[in-house]
Amino acid sequence: MRAGRGHWIRVLSPLILGLLLWWQTPPVGVTQQAWHLLVVFVSTIVGIIAAPLPMGAVALLGVVASVVTHTLTIEQALFGFGNKVIWLIVTSFMIARGFIKTGLSSRIAYLFVSRVGKSTLGLSYGLLATDLVLAPAIPSNTARAGGVIYPIALSLRDIYKDKDSDDSVGAFILKTAFQGNLITSAMFLTAMAANPLAAQLARDLGVEISWTTWAVGAALPGLVSLVLVPLLLYKLCPPAITKTPDAAEMARQKLKDMGAMTRVEKIMLVVFCLMLCLWMFGKQLAFHSTTTALVGLSLLLVTGVLTWQDVCQEKEAWNTLVWFAALVMMASFLNKLGFIPWFSETMGRQLGGFHWFPAFIGLTLIYFYSHYLFASNTAHVSSMYAPFLGVAIAVGAPPLVSALVLGYFSNLFSGCTHYGCGAAPIFFGAGFLPTGRWWRVGWVVSVVNVVIWLGVGGLWWRLLGYW
After folding, report:
1. What is the pLDDT of residues 276-323, one digit of tens each?
2. Cβ neighbours, 10 Å, residue 4
3. 186 with 412: CB under 8 angstroms?
4. Average pLDDT, whole number, for the chain?
5. What does DSSP assign to residue 398?
């Protein structure tokens, strides 16, 4: 089949951009090597956005380009594949397969719905509670949303479709599940693939973020958002049916059909609890979070919950390894070669007349709402997280809080549009909300989330001594 004009535009746009930038004179203070790596990096990000090929393939081309142009050596270009944070997220993908394979994720969801699902609002909280429990161990918001939450949400909606001609129940449940998925993704370092990338970029700038630091910092503002956002959506997308005893009964029947917990479910649950303990107390036990994930995966393999074939077939994990390693490598060397420090210092001088607080608020809002231009959390984090964090630190903002806020916002900003992350098209595609209403509701929720995380979060981080 002949490729269309749109395909070739997507293929050529990053290449043409790279060629145009390659021959430009670098700004004063930026070396030729740093400039050329920036060109490769920008072209790679444009390629990821344009998507002429899958993300992993585009990232691999970026690695190859950095070597064949003699911008980096082959050893430097492959630097990212040995990064421990990358292996944390890759291993977590494999562990997530255990939740789905054993059926434990569905059991957890039906358990919550059976307990709190007697009302439409209760159903939404049941789904969010499920997402919250699964988030630490399933590092893909798309996998949690599409593989666990979305099918159950649809089955709950189907119970009332004959009584709800406007599909208002479906609109409320699915919109709440989507927005809640973004909140839970922000609450744990291992809940979304780009979170460890943000932590690595912060580490390159001298800011250390552990699994516990991230989770504790997100605990209060995250829980407040999980409570208030469904209430807000209950007003913005009011369901015509408010009492749903049939849904709770359906969940109880599903649990009955599943029977008692199987051996593999029990093992999966024990391993998960062990991993949570090691993640929380890893610093005291001298256990790196990646070591914890590898221990968990090893236990699942030894006990037969997962097979080596399961590991080999976890395509998303190996795909993540490639694009993650490529982006971490380029971002790290942009810092080592001096581009990120130069950019931070330059922008810091421009904002030097402002107190750090208004400058930081302005930076975070620009970072948040610029996501209207992105269809990928990873592309946004890769291209903007390190420069914005560097500028925030340069103007005097507390480094740890700056790194965390940008990390949390790297999840929450996806709720504005129907293309902002992998989970968005899944829920939007159900067709319960038209595009205009989806955007309007998303914008209102985004404002509420920004206020909660900067307001409640700011006080919480002050109490924790983060700034």
Report:
1. 888 878 777 888 778 888 999 999 999 999 999 999 998 878 887 888
2. 9
3. yes
4. 87
5. -
CA distance 392 to 408: 15
Q: How far apart are CA 140 and CA 143, in angstroms?
A: 5
Angle at 164 (CA atoms; ends 414, 175), nearest 5 degrees: 10
CA atoms within 13 A of residue 156's CA, in its CB half-sphere: 38
Nearest in space to 409 (alpha carbons), one of 237, 192, 233? 192
Quick one: which of 80, 89, 136 has its CA closest to 108? Answer: 136
String of b and e for 13-24 (b: at least 16 CB within 10 Å)? bbeebbeeeeee
Taking the model in full, what pTM does it have?
0.79
| Low-confidence winner among 185-194, 282-291, 413-422 (lowest mean pLDDT) | 282-291
Mean pLDDT (whole number) for 401-422:
91
Report which residue type is found at 462: R
- Structure-derived torsion over alpha carbons of residues 371, 372, 377, 379, reported in degrees to the nearest 10: -90
Answer yes or no: are the C-beta atoms of 172 and 236 closer than 8 Å: no
- Rounded Cα distance, 103 and 258, in Å: 9
CA distances from 121 to 49, 146, 235 (A): 36, 21, 11
Question: How far apart, in Å, are the Cα atoms of 340 and each of 204, 236, 337, 385, 400?
Answer: 10, 42, 8, 11, 18
| Nearest Cα residue to 34 out of 327, 333, 312, 265 | 333
Distance of CA 3 to the CA centre of its chain: 32
Show the tokens assigned to 413: 């900003």
| Sign of the CA dihedral running 153, 424, 410, 313 | positive
- Domains of the chain by residue range: 1-77+317-337, 84-315
Cα torsion 427, 429, 430, 433: sign: positive
Whole-number percent of the chain with pLDDT over 90 = 41
- Can you give the pLDDT at residue 1? 45
Name the token pair of 80: 């990212």
Q: What are residue 119's DSSP bridge partners?
A: 243
